[in-house]
Structures are given as C-alpha cells and as structure tokens.
Amino acid sequence: MKRNFFLSVFSILIVLTGCSSKPKIDIDTTPKMQIQKQATPIIKRKGALYSRRGASLFADKKDLQVGDIIQILIEETLTNDSTNTRDLKKTNSSTLGGALFSVPQTASSGSQKRVNNLNSALGVGVSTNSKNTFKGSAKTKADEEFTTTISAIIEQTYQNGNYFIKGSKEMLINGEKQNIRISGVIRPYDISPENTVFSYQLANLKILYEKDGEDVNSLEKSWGTKILETIWPF
C-alpha cells in the first residue's frame, strides 16, 4: 500500500515538473491606443497625367503603406549584476520561579534561611531559552547581447503617421531550431534611407527568441533536479 502511494506521488511530481510552463511573450497582441489611418481614395481623371490625389510617380520612401516590408536591425544588450544578503537572528529567554514552602514574616531569621535553602534544593521554577537564526544570500549576474536583422511587414498605419509592424524568422541550423518574432510601433522619421530602423527605436517593442536543440538542453536543469527542488521544503 505504501509503495503504491509513493509511486503515485512520484509520478504526479514528474508530470507536474514536465508540464511547468516557461515565461512567454504574447507577440500577437496589437496595441489599440492609436487611431488607425483612413486610406485615401485614389481618383483618376481623364485627360490628365497627374492628380494631386492620385498615385505619385515619385512617392516618399517613408510614406509606406500596409503590406510594405521594412528591415529591423535588432541590437539588444542585457546587463544585470545584483547581490542580496539576509541575516536574521532571534533570541528569547524567560524564567518563571516559585516556592513550595514559606514562613510568616514574624518568623526568626534562622527559620527563613532554612526554608529558602529547602526551596532552592527542590529547584522549583521554569526556565526557557530559544534561538532562531536564518542566513541567505543570492547573486545574479547576466551579460547577454543579441544582434540580428529581420524583415517585418507593416500591418497598420495610424493617423499620426506611425506604423505597427510584425515580423518573424524561423531557421534550422545543424539540428538546432531558432525562432525570432518581433512587433512594435515605428515612427516614419526613424526610418533610414536604406529602409531600416533599429530595434531600440520601436515603441511597445516585443521580441521573442526561442531555441530548441542540444545547446538549450545543456543549459537547462535536469528533470531530477527540478523534482527535488519542488518537493524540498527547506
């Protein structure tokens, strides 16, 4: 009976450890804080080669439309160095005394001395002592750099001229799968003549970078270690 119980508990822990989800970014969320730009109808007039409201022969490169492609230069650096130390101490001490025998105040000094010696010999009284100590420390250090280029498509244009873009790139190199997804809002003034923009110039920037392969497995904890950390109460 006990054996079956422990096997059941162990199986449940394995399932829970395997089902633990990793933090993810909802890259598909579209910001709604801006007003979408209304498309200007193109009017063609007979007998004229050019119209002010028609399609321009020399369009401004920054006046992009929904469906146009733009290059995003991703240059992100993450640096973090923090140290936390905690030291707690708590000490309690209490004494409760009492006497089994007593004599009237009018008794002689000899009688009082004998009664005091008797109470002292019997050791009547309660004394308690407690001491709690906790020490903990944690140190975190991260230095990561991510640089790449990805093409994105303009999905929305706003009345103020900004663009909402989305892009993705999926690669399989030497059995290692890499998936990059990006979204954000771009100002037309930040677009270079080469039709590129840096990632740090995007508002509401979201970058999702996932890897699946042997390199990722070597950086993750083994399932046995995860189970021990889950059930370890201290």
Descriptive report:
This protein has 234 residues and is of the alpha+beta class. The protein has a domain at 86-136. The chain has four helices and six strands. A six-stranded mixed β-sheet has the order 5-1-2-3-4-6. The protein starts with a helix and ends with a helix.
Mean pLDDT reading: 73
Reported for the largest beta sheet, the result is: 6 strands, mixed
Structural category: alpha+beta
Alpha-carbon Rg, integer: 37 Å
Report the uncertain regions.
Answer: 51-61
| Ends distance | 28 Å
The counted number of beta strands is 6
| Strand order, largest beta sheet | 5-1-2-3-4-6
Strand content: 35-45%
Along the chain, the helix and strand elements come as HEHEEEEEHH
How helical, in percent, are the residues? 10-25%
Our count of helices gives 4
The rough form would be described as elongated
